[in-house]
């Protein structure tokens, strides 16, 4: 007994019925009430039809002599009318619950996306989070709808079963325990296998993610070139096939075991049903049942089988889908780790041009043992172009992520006009920085959108968009297209125009220029620009920044030479700093890095 109770408790914990119902109720309580009312009316109509048929049949029990013709016609018309109503309400009810389910699916899918956008970048360092995200997105795509539909079936079949139980008891009370004997084993088997299937999927989420990744590589356009150039197709396909086959085989084995146990329980159920039928026939032969009872039984028998099956299906589907809902809650319960709502006075900061200082800053990535930056200090004064130089992996891009407050440092701080950026509202602070990441995004939207995204909080200003494009050199590229700034870029959508890497870079720089930020950061953003474009860009950058500042990362001497001040980073520290001439004269790491011959 205690074992059963423990199992029930475990099931309850797994399915989160209260949370799932609360979530669904919050989204659309009105529609749920309408749907439930329709189900009630539908079932009342069905029971009314069956009961009026019983009353109709009872009229014939006394033979021709005692037949009341008016009553026969009355019950017949009544049964027919209510039967027609039943059919109509049934269709409306199915439509209402289906549309309710689709709305809820859509809403929860949106909640998942909205919540994901609130989470910090550091979550993306953790494969466990990526598994949670994958499971939640999959569950969010269809499980809420499936829950609503199973709840609908559950409500419908339960009400129908109550009516049937009443009629069965009225016919013969022994039918009730027999019915339970049929229902419970099937229910038990389905729930048990739902659990197993869920656990199997949970355990294999990482492998599923690997197949998704491989599939993207093989079918997406990002890797299409390299895969063909290096003939990687067969290798990837084999790897993909191995994992897929393993997963499919395991799933088939699980389904096979389920099928065997289901056959056994369904056989038992069918036997029990025929026993029920025998009981009814015996009772009728002994004269313990009326004609009406036999008619009721004849209607109920096929109906009760499908109701019980429907009920079991609904309960097990409700259970099964609910365990997947746990994945959605697991994601929705994750909280942003960073304090985003600093209350520092932004007005005071705005009164002066931005002076950024990095003070004794140390940082290592979450889940990583080694420090990437260790006790590093530097300043980015207003009106100056500052450059960061260092070998690959020196930590330059990491410093930029910290400057954008995508991560917080472990020690030390970053200040803007003397205020620690952690004390500021994160969205306000991020608007003070515009950045072109090394792996900037090529948005497959219009060219105008690509630039406007630099300051989406502001109404789109076509003149300013064009101005930003002129400064970055993107204007010349876009003018070539007949649709100009409205041209859709990239190959994802019909009629999209693809740009060269350098042209995409110009567009990304225009996006950063469009922002009204105090600090512009270019991380290897000019690597694909030709020499003329690069020169023009730096002229524009000086013109654009005024008393604002710029931080540039590059491995190209032609870019770095343009900076007012250069920091050389090595071994997680700043090892040299000064302007180009100072650093050359010092004959240190900087001059070696660029192989500059000394006089
Ligand atoms: N998301 C991450 N999680 C863990 N470690 C990371 C992550 N990103 C970078 N690193 C590690 O941090 C170190 C610094 O990387 P970073 O990208 O900042 O270097 P970089 O100086 O910009 O290099 P490059 O010149 O090649 O662009 C590297 O050793 C890298 O392996």
TrEMBL record:
Its main location: membrane. It is found in: Cell membrane. SUPFAM superfamilies: ABC transporter transmembrane region, P-loop containing nucleoside triphosphate hydrolases. The keyword ATP-binding applies. PROSITE patterns: ABC_TM1F (PS50929), ABC_TRANSPORTER_2 (PS50893). The keyword Nucleotide-binding applies. Pfam families: ABC_membrane, ABC_tran. One of its GO terms (molecular function) is ATP binding. The chain crosses the membrane at residues 32-51, 71-89, 175-193, 259-282, 294-315. It is a multi-pass membrane protein. It comes from Danxiaibacter flavus. This is ABC transporter ATP-binding protein. Residues 33-320 form the ABC transmembrane type-1 domain.
């Amino acid at each position: 007994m205690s074992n059963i109770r423990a199992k029930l408790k475990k099931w309850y914990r797994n399915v989160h019925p209260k949370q799932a119902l609360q979530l669904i109720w919050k989204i659309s309580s009105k529609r749920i009430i309408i749907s439930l009312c329709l189900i009630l009316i539908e079932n009342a109509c069905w029971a009314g039809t069956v009961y009026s048929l019983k009353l109709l049949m009872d009229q014939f029990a006394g033979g021709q002599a005692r037949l009341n013709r008016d009553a026969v016609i009355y019950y017949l018309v009544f049964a027919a009318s209510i039967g027609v109503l039943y059919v109509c309400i049934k269709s409306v009810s199915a439509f209402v619950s289906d549309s309710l389910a689709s709305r809820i699916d859509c809403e929860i899918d949106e909640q998942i996306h909205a919540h994901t956008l609130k989470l910090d970048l550091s979550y993306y360092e953790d494969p466990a989070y990526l598994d949670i995200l994958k499971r939640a997105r999959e569950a969010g795509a269809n499980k809420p709808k499936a829950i609503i539909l199973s709840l609908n079936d559950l409500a419908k079949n339960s009400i129908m079963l109550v009516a049937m139980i009443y009629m069965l008891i009225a016919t013969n009370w022994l039918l009730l325990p027999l019915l339970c004997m049929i229902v419970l084993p099937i229910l038990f088997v389905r729930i048990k296998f739902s659990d197993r299937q869920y656990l199997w999927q949970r355990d294999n989420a990482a492998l599923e993610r690997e197949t998704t990744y491989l599939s993207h590589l093989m079918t997406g356009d990002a890797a299409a070139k390299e895969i063909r150039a290096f003939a990687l197709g067969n290798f990837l396909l084999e790897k993909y096939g191995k994992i897929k086959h393993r997963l499919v085989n395991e799933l088939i084995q699980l389904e096979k075991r389920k099928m065997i146990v289901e056959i056994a329980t369904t056989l038992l159920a069918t036997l029990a049903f025929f026993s029920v039928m025998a009981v009814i026939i015996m009772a009728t032969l002994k004269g313990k049942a009326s004609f009406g009872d036999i008619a009721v039984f004849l209607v109920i028998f096929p109906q009760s089988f499908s109701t019980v099956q429907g009920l079991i299906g609904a309960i097990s589907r409700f259970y099964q889908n609910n365990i997947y809902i746990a994945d959605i809650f697991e994601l929705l319960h994750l909280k942003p780790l960073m304090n985003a709502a600093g209350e520092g006075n932004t007005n005071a900061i705005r009164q002066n041009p931005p002076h950024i200082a990095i003070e004794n800053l140390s940082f290592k990535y979450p889940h990583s043992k080694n420090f990437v930056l260790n006790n590093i200090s530097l300043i980015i004064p207003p009106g100056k172009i500052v450059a960061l130089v260092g070998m690959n992996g020196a930590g330059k891009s990491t410093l930029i992520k910290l400057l954008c407050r995508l991560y917080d440092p472990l020690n030390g701080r970053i200040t803007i006009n003397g205020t620690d950026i952690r004390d500021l509202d994160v969205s306000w602070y991020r608007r003070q920085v515009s950045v072109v990441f090394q792996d900037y995004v090529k948005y497959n939207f219009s060219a105008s959108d690509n630039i406007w995204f630099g300051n989406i909080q502001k109404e789109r200003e076509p003149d300013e968009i064009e101005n930003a494009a002129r400064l970055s050199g993107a204007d010349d590229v876009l003018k070539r297209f007949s649709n100009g700034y409205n041209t859709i870029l990239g190959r994802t959508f019909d009629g999209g125009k693809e740009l060269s890497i350098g042209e995409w870079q110009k567009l990304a720089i225009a996006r950063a220029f469009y922002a009204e930020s105090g600090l512009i950061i270019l991380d290897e953003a000019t690597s694909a620009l030709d020499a003329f474009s690069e020169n023009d860009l730096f002229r524009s950058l000086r013109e654009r920044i005024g008393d604002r500042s710029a931080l540039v990362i590059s491995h190209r001497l032609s870019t770095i030479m343009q900076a007012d001040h250069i920091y050389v980073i090595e071994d997680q520290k700043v090892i040299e700093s000064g302007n180009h001439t100072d650093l050359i004269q010092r004959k240190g790491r900087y001059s070696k890095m660029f192989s500059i011959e000394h006089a």
